[in-house]
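Minimal example, chain plus magnesium ion.
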Amino acid sequence: MNTILIGSQWGDEGKGKIIDVLTTDADIVVRSQGGNNAGHTIVSGKKKYILHLIPSGILRSGKICVIGNGVVIDPIALVQEIEGLRTQGIKVNKNLLISESAHLVMPYHRALDEAREQMKGKNKIGTTKRGIGPAYGDKAARVGMRLADLMRPEVFEKKLRLRIKENNLVLKSFNEKSLSFSKVLKEYQEAASLLKPFVINTVAYLHEAIAKKKNILFEGAQGTFLDLDHGTYPFVTSSNTTSGGACTGSGVPPNSIDSVVGVLKAYTTRVGEGPLPTENTTIGTMLHEMGREFGSTTGRARRCGWFDSVATRYATMVNGVDRLAITNVDGLDELKEISICVGYKIDGRGKIITIPPLDAEELARCTPVYKTMPGWMVSTSNCKNYKDLPLNARRYLDAIAQLTGAKLWIVSVGPGRDQTLWLK
Ligand code: GDP
Ligand code: IMO
Ligand code: MG
């Protein structure tokens, strides 16, 4: 059984937690897109782990984690992440495989990400400044460098010299400091020797695993509305975060996929700029006062709002979602009344629309049409079975699953592994 798990909103839906739970039934967990802009949190007992590049299956022994060809890798950050996990007692050894075709994030990508954001001023995207956009830009422009290049010292040195020369000219035009070829070369050579044992042809590996009927879980990063093609362009990331990205980013064809799981929060959050129709400061303040909804990668406070079923239904369509995992239900425990967005009106007038305009400016003009439901006003975080949830919570979950258009499968009522409720 091969399953793709994606975020059906704007990222941070709780993908890391759900992947960690589902890994018990998987043999292999694969990341196929994005880079260390992702921050996936897993809470195991009293310990908290935040993963950026390494798949969230790494905490479970006996599982293989694969970083696929579609991921952009900052080798220095990856080495730090491996070392950080080892310090926390997690084995990272033969259980991690990295694609030789994955592109490298270079120091000039990070510098350009920052410089472009600064130049945009109030029109900035609010990126994580990890160099993701420029790295994918170089990939598309066919001037990127890959892990395979990094593994061949003479090739890497030759390519790096040219890339630094060109990018220093660009950085100069932004009035930014130029980069030292020898310093970058040394840092990347050190990382290369540490990463070498992990680097293979992951496409061939995954196809062998499929032939052996292994169970593969594909871990999406970011969320549907941050997708380069289907999100709120230009306020998006630079990869395909939707289910198709799992195939191109791993070399596993669509006819090897059995199921697509969409992860949703019981409300909406977004970090960074761009339209968010249901944004609501009251719910934001409530969640922030509970100490929740601060970014796992940058620490920024996430923008918060009511559940937006116009968005999640669109995500079901684009990704082919058949089952849902709804997380953070406990975040709504204190509310007397809960709103659900069931449609938009443009500029608050005219007919109700139920397909989100993907043009960011048009989406920014949308005002939500809400339906309200009574809250449950008791804690759900100790519930162990779906039927333990208060009736109003079950009604709310049924309503949002129905509006989203897929089968409710998993409900999460806390960050811990045992705070996970299953439906048949
Ligand atoms: P991801 O990027 O989709 O993996 O999500 P993040 O890890 O960035 O953000 C999700 C946050 O919600 C993390 O802090 C998780 O530990 C936390 N989380 C996940 N599910 C639940 C839940 O059901 N309840 C609570 N309270 N926290 C949760
Ligand atoms: P996970 O996998 C939430 C957002 C940034 C910014 C936009 C572009 O943890 O859900 P980038 O650095 O990718 O060029 O930034 O995308 N963004 C995320 N938001 N969760 C993420 O990952 C994100 N990765 C990028 O905040 O708005
Ligand atoms: Mg996250």
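Residues 7, 11-12, 37-40, 125-128, 130, 132-133, 221-223, 226, 237-238, 271-272, 296 surround 6-O-phosphoryl inosine monophosphate (ligand 2) (CB under 6 Å). The chain has a mean pLDDT of 97.
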